[in-house]
Design brief:
DNA-binding; Winged helix-turn-helix transcriptional regulator; HTH_ArsR_DNA-bd_dom; two-stranded antiparallel ribbon; alpha+beta; DNA-binding transcription factor activity; 4 strands
Length: about 150
């Protein structure tokens, strides 16, 4: 028998899905398109699809892109994201998962990940990758692995 879902958490998930569906139109043009999608079942089912004009990707605000790439570009923060992609966790659970870091260091790294929109604080002192971020984060990790030669 599955556990009952907290109504606020359920409402939050529904609002995120509606916001994703009603998001701004994605431009496409002569340069072609870049797209990604995924259906993921890690700590819940999440689906995501986006298509964007290839030339418009080059016009995305640098600050937003750098903030996310920098947040993911630290070993401990990447370990935290890996753990959170498997499910929400408390700071104590995250500290244990990354071994060798103090709770203070974990809070510092979570602040960076939260500012970048990669992680959010959930109820009960638990942190998580937002539902709308699961597929984009996995795609970023996959693309980095591809560029780094890990897929060959």
């Amino acid at each position: 028998m599955s556990e009952p879902i907290d109504m606020l958490e359920r409402l939050d998930r529904l609002e995120q899905r509606v916001a994703a569906l009603e998001g701004p139109a994605r431009p496409t043009g002569e340069a072609g398109t870049v797209a990604y999608s995924g259906q993921v079942r890690l700590h819940g089912e999440v689906g995501w699809q986006i298509e964007f004009d290839a030339a418009a990707v080059l016009d995305l605000p640098s600050a937003a892109v750098v903030r996310v790439l920098a947040a993911l570009g630290h070993t401990v923060r990447l370990q935290l994201v890996h753990r959170l992609l498997r499910g929400p966790a408390t700071v104590a659970e995250l500290t244990e998962a990354v071994g060798g870091s103090s709770a203070g260091q974990v809070y510092h790294h979570l602040a960076t990940l939260t500012a970048a929109g990669v992680v959010e604080a959930g109820g009960g002192g638990r942190h998580r990758v937002p539902a709308t971020g699961v597929v984009p984060v996995l795609v970023a990790l996959l693309a980095a692995g591809d560029l780094g030669g890990a897929l060959r």
